[in-house]
UniProtKB/TrEMBL annotation:
Residues 1-32, 50-73 are annotated as: Disordered. PANTHER family: BETA-1,3-GALACTOSYLTRANSFERASE 1, BETA-1,3-N-ACETYLGLUCOSAMINYLTRANSFERASE. This is Hexosyltransferase. It is found in: Golgi apparatus membrane. It comes from the Eukaryota. Residues 1-25 have a biased composition (Polar residues). Its cofactor is Mn(2+). The keyword Lyase does not apply. GO terms for molecular function: N-acetyl-beta-D-glucosaminide beta-(1,3)-galactosyltransferase activity. Its EC number is 2.4.1.-. It is a single-pass type II membrane protein. It comes from Xyrichtys novacula (Pearly razorfish). Belongs to the glycosyltransferase 31 family. GO terms for biological process: lipid metabolic process; protein O-linked glycosylation.
Length: 389
């Protein structure tokens, strides 16, 4: 691994040089971690401020291509009202969710019941910007780890590559680590992710706007990617960039490579609850979007594992399932339609947990782990494998 890191240093330095010359805001760069891409601290703070202004609490609306939405006219006379009535926008924005409005269209004469029944309610009308389509051409992975991340989390991605997400850790088991992203409204961040992708070839991007309210689109992109490019994989894990994964427990105690692969299998930290109707909550769900009083059982989005056949089943089911912004709840809805019941597993921990060698040896996932903590935990656990608890 150390040889790989050193061989990548010149390539990363070359990328930093290109970014310095093309954008003065990035010069001179600072290193943000061994093997990671450099960013200028002033630019970084400006980017944070710009990103904060574009969040859901009053930021500028943007269309699917990141362009600012036109402001509404101030005069509303009869002519203006008539004009507005025939020039409504084609996209509905609810917290920047990329959900197309369904237009009233006169049905064709040859329409049939089957056409009505099979027409997608929620078409995933997005294209891959970065696909890594050949990732599984020469190998059949035992496990694919799909990691939901954001453009600015360079440190987190690099920490995962150098710790539990290192694909070379298990020489006799093929594991793929894939980072999932949408498009950012900042072209500089998009460019940096493209450069990062050219080095590591572990990033997949679709052309929806990357945001909290589009996390469901990001997960469905991951399901689509597996079904399209890696359908012969055995197992899939979906997790987040602030999660520490105990790979030994995941592979040898849960998935057990020597046993027959399971099908229609789904496990994680199972939650049984209902929608929160308080509009101040991060997890608010309106009655219009979800009128039921209870959610079906679902696994916390911090980490869940399923057999690879389920990826295609969930993706195809999502095309006929009304989109919800709560990604883990939405996956649970798709599982209910499929008749797949998620299994509870106490090894998946979706809370922050203070580090203890023996405690971390018993779990599969731990939430809210920083890049620095990830390195410390990994180094400590790796160097003390001979110790008993």
């Amino acid at each position: 691994m150390s040889g790989t890191k050193s061989s990548m240093e010149p390539a990363i330095s070359q990328i930093n040089g290109k970014l310095q010359t093309s954008r003065s805001a990035l010069s001179p760069p600072e290193r943000i971690g061994k093997g990671s891409i450099g960013l200028h601290s002033d630019w970084w703070s400006q980017a944070r401020q710009a990103d904060h202004k574009s969040e859901w609490d009053g930021g500028t609306e943007r269309d699917l291509n990141g362009e600012a939405a036109a402001s509404s006219p101030t005069r509303t006379g009869p002519l203006a009202l008539w004009y507005l009535s025939i020039s409504r926008p084609t996209t509905n924005y609810v917290g920047h969710m990329s959900v197309p409005i369904r237009k009233t269209v006169k049905p064709p004469k040859n329409i049939t019941f089957n056409n009505i029944r099979t027409r997608p309610l929620n078409p995933h009308a997005f294209e891959f910007v970065i696909s890594e389509a050949k990732k599984c051409e020469s190998v059949t992975p035992f496990l694919i780890i799909l990691i939901s991340t954001t453009h600015k989390e360079f440190d987190a991605r690099q920490a995962i590559r150098e710790t539990w997400g290192d694909e070379s850790t298990f020489t006799d088991i093929r594991i793929l680590t894939i980072f999932l992203l949408g498009k950012n409204t900042d072209p500089v961040l998009n460019q940096m992710v493209e450069q990062e992708s050219q080095i590591f070839h572990d990033i997949v991007v679709e052309d929806f706007i990357d945001s909290y309210h589009n996390l469901t689109l990001k997960t469905m992109m991951g399901m689509r990617w597996v079904a399209t490019f890696c359908p012969k994989a055995q197992y899939i894990m979906k997790t987040d960039s602030d999660i520490f994964v105990n790979m030994d427990n995941l592979i040898f105690k849960l998935l057990k490579p020597t046993t027959k692969p399971r099908r229609r299998y789904f496990t994680g930290y199972v939650i049984n609850g209902g929608p929160i109707r308080d509009m101040r909550s991060k997890w608010y769900m309106s009655r219009d979007l979800y009128p039921e009083s209870r959610y079906p059982p679902f696994c916390s989005g911090t980490g869940y594992v399923f057999s690879a056949d389920v990826a295609e089943l969930i993706y195809k089911t999502s095309l006929h399932t009304r989109l919800l912004h709560l990604e883990d709840v939405y996956v649970g809805l798709c599982l209910r339609k499929l008749g797949i019941h998620p299994y509870q597993n106490s090894g998946f921990n979706h809370w922050k947990m203070a580090y203890s060698l023996c405690r971390y040896r018993r779990v599969i996932t731990v939430h809210q782990i920083s890049p620095e903590e990830m390195h410390r935990i990994w180094n400590d656990m790796s160097s003390k494998k001979h110790l008993r608890c």
